[in-house]
Design brief:
Chain lengths: 116, 110
């Protein structure tokens, strides 16, 4: 199957700093990318849907100014956690859908963020 | 809104079949998925089924869909220790966001 690469795999940062997470589709073009957050032993919660060249659509309760999403090209979307706090510590996973409405969504390996 | 529910835990004996159940609420669901997540890893798509299908089989995996009851199940035949993971049921409308269930933790006992 297609590959989605997420970087970094894990990151530790200090409170108040910003962290950028990259999501790349390596061998296909992704018109739409999704960002999820997963708390320990819980399901994935959709944070936002990112469409190439347009503003991301955020789910209710997700602060768009805190979680900045940029989808500048058909192969790259970034999530920046701004002014990180310990409660932002979580597992963040991106997924990408190939263009033309393909059914299958491919997931990155996830990024574990720890804010200290 | 859309909701997907599944039981949190399932324990089966090695070699037996595992059946993981899921219910969903969105009658407009077009695709239904089963994902596998191993510890600290991302999600692996196991299989998916279109809403106009009743069953799909792929090697040891069998997916059954009861659209009337909005019930989806995943059967794993001859369960092995390597099948230990969290299994997520998910649904989406065409080319839309994917909504996940809470995940079922499958443990295998000898």
């Amino acid at each position: 199957g297609a590959v989605v690469s997420q970087h970094p795999s894990w990151v530790i940062c200090k409170s108040g700093t910003s962290v950028k997470i990259e999501c790349r589709s390596l061998d296909f073009q992704a018109t739409t990318m999704f960002w999820y957050r997963q708390f320990p032993k819980q399901s994935l919660m959709l944070m936002a849907t990112s469409n190439e060249g347009s503003k991301a659509t955020y789910e209710q309760g997700v602060e768009k100014d805190k979680f900045l999403i940029n989808h500048a090209s058909l192969t790259l979307s970034t999530l920046t956690v701004t002014s990180a706090h310990p409660e932002d510590s979580s597992f963040y996973i991106c997924s990408a859908r190939e263009s033309k409405g393909n059914t299958e969504a491919f997931f990155g390996q996830g990024t574990r963020l720890t804010v200290v | 809104g859309e909701d997907v529910e599944q039981s949190l835990f399932l324990s089966v004996r090695e070699g037996d079949s595992s059946v993981i159940n899921c219910t969903y609420t969105d009658s407009s669901s077009t695709y239904l998925y089963w994902y596998k997540q191993e510890p600290g890893a991302g999600l692996q798509l196991l299989t998916y089924i279109f809403s106009n299908m009743d069953m799909k089989q792929d090697q040891r995996l069998t997916v059954l869909l009861n659209k009337k009851d909005k019930h989806l199940s995943l059967r794993i035949a001859d369960t092995q220790t390597g099948d230990s993971a969290i299994y997520f049921c998910a649904e989406s409308e065409a080319a839309s966001k994917i909504i996940f269930g809470s995940g079922t933790r499958l443990s295998i006992r000898p």
